Amino acid sequence: MKTIALVGCGRVSARHVEAIADTKCVQIAMVCDKIEERAKALGEKLGVPYLTDYRQIKGVDVISVLTPSGLHPRHVSNIAELTDAPYIVCEKPLSLTLREAYEVYRRVEKAGKVLLPVYQNRYNPLVKMIKDLIDSGQLGRIYQFGCNAYWNRNDDYFKIDWHGTAEFDGGVLYTQASHYVDMLHFFFGELEDHKGIGGSLRNLDVYDTVSAVMRFRSGVIGTLSTTVSVYKTNYLTEFTLIAEKGTIRLSGTNLNKIDFWNVEGMEKPDMDFTINHQYGKGHDTMYQYIADERWEMFPSKEDVLSGIGMMEKLSY
Description:
Blueprint: E1 2-7, H1 13-21, E2 26-32, H2 36-46, E3 50-51, E4 62-65, H3 72-82, E5 87-90, H4 98-110, E6 114-117, H5 125-136, E7 142-150, H6 172-175, H7 178-188, E8 191-199, E9 209-216, E10 221-227, E11 236-243, E12 246-251, E13 257-263, H8 282-291, H9 301-314
Parallel strand pairs: 1-2, 1-4, 2-3, 4-5, 5-6, 7-10
Antiparallel strand pairs: 7-11, 8-9, 9-10, 11-12, 12-13
Helix pairs in contact: 1-8, 3-4, 4-9, 7-9
């Protein structure tokens, strides 16, 4: 049984609580948040101790960092150096800059700990299937893609202290659509060229809307458009792939549905699955990998650094 401490009891913590509860051989041992009321509420709900200072965490196998995005580098590094937990999970993004990402890895490695960045979208069954098809060569040459994430984050969301700030948020590509930026990196590799426009249409410190055109070293060309300003509720997440031997379109809450399938020699897979929230079920898979000590299933340091570099380039 792997014991886990959650650091940060805000919005995304509910997804981690749910995933851990649904996963065998992992359990939450304690929770921590600098806001005592929030830490106490979650601790009492789960029946575990709560803390307000992560430096006091002792005796757990894993510490999951779920704090504001811009604080991830500081919190991960400090936890590596100041606690006895051998493994540190970090919610996306690991950092807002490539320089910080390099420093995080340096400090974590010097402390003799293992960093486990959250890239749960890679464990999405349909995303993994597309990745396997691309790598197998079954689709032939990949020509083009289109990826859109049209979501809503209302004004109340941006009243939360760190949301929409330059220091801690990073904007729509970091805090909302980062897993789709990573998906493109996962599929197509190194970015070679890009052009795009970002805008703060709601007068935030960061961009709430971005559209970009990209070319990867592999020659693949495509677009990414994302916003958090859709009226009232999330509208759509979609990904279309145009290849020499096939055309595929995924959509749904978290790319959980096959909308179109025309692949040479391959019938449409019966893999559509329903998700009732925006995060998907990848966190469950991630925690099962932790329970099973499948550390090789997490992205490598080189992969993470390359992806953060791509995110930084696209953030205009």
